[in-house]
Amino acid sequence: MKNLFITLALSVLICKSQSATLVIQGKYQNKNLFVQNFFGGSGVGFCAVEVKVNGQITTDEVNSSAFEIDLAALRLKYGENITVEIVHKDGCTPKVLNMEDLKPKPTFEVITMNITSAGLLKWSTKSENGALPYIIEQFKWNKWVPVGEVDGLGTPDNHDYSFLVAPHSGENKFRVKQVGLGLIPKFSASVLLNSMSEKPSYKISKEQDAIQFSYETGYEAYDIYGLVVKKGFGKEINIGNLLIGKYYLCYDNQVTEIEKKQ
């Protein structure tokens, strides 16, 4: 009897060591998951052993070449966090065919959006169906540049958000966006701010080791191949480590060509 118990215990340990778990996390989007199931590594039986959703074993039938994880039967709420665990045999891995359906989509609608003279961008939204960050963008240097981020609350209720931006001289344009399923972005309309601040000037130090601005400003510097070599906000850029040659300097709302001579 003792030997039989030891044999059974060893069999259980071996079975556990010969299994693995595929873990998928996301948010419920009113869609079920579809799994392509393969034969086990030994060629006997199918790969998947069982499925758990948020720690609970489901009744999904896994002994087939393809099966559906019935999330709708679990009475989940739209946008609810879920963790799916597919326990499977070693030497094979089931394939979830539509994992992207657990990613939230940007569905927000802007109710109001404005910006104060001090640069405080404020917007109110509704109809969010999944928590996604709002990316704040400013149009400058002939492109939209990300300048900040605010976490979205992700529920359909009305929500108020704000972010303090740093306007450049002259006309400014700002907008917010969210990026979700399939990396497809959703944008707000843009708002305008006319800033009366003075446009900064710049000079390269005699030692050719710094670019000095008359006022603090956002900046980017590119080499002739279009690679960013410096980026930030301030009154000075250390260029002591840059090679001699031409560069493109973006600052305030300006783009200009500069040359480091030594």
Structural commentary:
With 262 residues, the protein is mainly beta. The protein has three domains: 20-102; 109-195, Coagulation Factor XIII, Chain A, domain 1; 202-260, Immunoglobulin-like. 6% of the residues lie in helices and 50% in strands. It contains one helix and 20 strands. The protein is elongated, with a radius of gyration of 28 Å. The model is unreliable at 1-17 (pLDDT under 50).
Q: Which geometry do the CA atoms define?
A: elongated
Order of helices and strands: HEEEEEEEEEEEEEEEEEEEE
Mean pLDDT: 89
- Uncertain spans, ≥5 residues at pLDDT below 50? 1-17
Structural class: mainly beta
Number of domains: 3
Number of distinct helices: 1
Summarize the main sheet: 5 strands, antiparallel
Q: Gap between N and C termini, in Å? A: 87 Å
CATH class of the largest domain: Mainly Beta
User: What is the fourth-level CATH superfamily of the largest domain?
Assistant: chitin-binding protein cbp21
DSSP strand tally: 20
CATH topology of the largest domain: Coagulation Factor XIII, Chain A, domain 1
The name of the CATH architecture of the largest domain is Distorted Sandwich
Helix content: under 10%
